[in-house]
Amino acid sequence: MILGLIGIVSASIGLKALLLPNQFLDGGVTGVSLLLNRLFEINISVLIVTINLPFIWLAYKQIGRNFAIKSMLSIAGLAIAVHFIEIPTITDDKLLIAVFGGLFLGTGIGFSVRGGTVIDGTEVLAIFLSKKFRTTIGTIILVFNVFLFSIAAVLINLEVALYSILTYITASKTADYIIHGIEEYIGLTIVSEKSEEIRKAITEEMGYGATIYSGKRGYRKDNFKTKYEIDIIHTVITRLELNKLHAVIERIDEKAFIIEYTINDARGGIIKKKNYN
Question: Between 122-133 and 137-155, two packed helices, what is the crossing angle to 10 degrees?
């Protein structure tokens, strides 16, 4: 509940103090509301609730009753805050509006999601369409916003569309940091003849968990004769310590083959041992 309230307050500041007075847009349902408000001067609070209603129904059908109710309350809370709370305009500098408008709005979205709700129904639509068309949520949101900003460029002007893209990028990155944390997780698959030494360095020197797979070499096996089998290490580490792990692996085996990829979350098991000395 507290996180949801923080989200509503932050998003309200972004809208009332920065985006609305200067007629800037954002992505998602909020962006659609801002666009219609500018074109037809319809009350923004009414638009926020009305446009989100189909997505709340979709959330009820696809995710669950509790999530839909909480999201409806959060969206209604945002609409009420935007309508009744007076916040003075902070600046008329376009770059500051785009960056800090996105920052406040992204903070609001991030804290709302951390509180188990949403204040923008685009994510719900993206979840539904990603399952239907077998694509990623990020791709759906990107396509939605490209379409929105293209309309803004035609109906308003290109400058507004470009600044709105900057607002959207700032909001998106801010929300990601709040939802997933600054310590973004990185998964690594490591293939090395010195896998046991690397495993010990990861678990004993750095204090991270590791999983070992039994594998076989698939490239020019004739050069290795009986050394076809090899242990493959899989570990999860935060981006902040990634360079340190690279240095550890390079110290042990300069020719180690490493595959890295970003993961959104990890739970259960041991990622990093607590109170490790």
Answer: 120
Return d(Cα 142, Cα 266) in angstroms, integer.
Answer: 25
Portions of the chain given CATH number 3.30.70.120: 185-263
Q: What is the pLDDT of residues 7-18, one digit of tens each?
A: 999 999 999 999
3-state secondary structure of 225: coil
The CATH-assigned architecture of domain 185-263 is 2-Layer Sandwich (3.30)
Is residue 174 a contact partner of residue 102, using CB atoms and an 8 Å limit? yes
For 165-205, the pLDDT digits (tens) are 999 889 888 887 887 665 678 899 999 989 999 999 999 88
Least confident of 16-30, 51-65, 189-203, 220-234: 220-234
**HEC string of 228-254?**
CEEEEEEEEEEHHHHHHHHHHHHHHCC
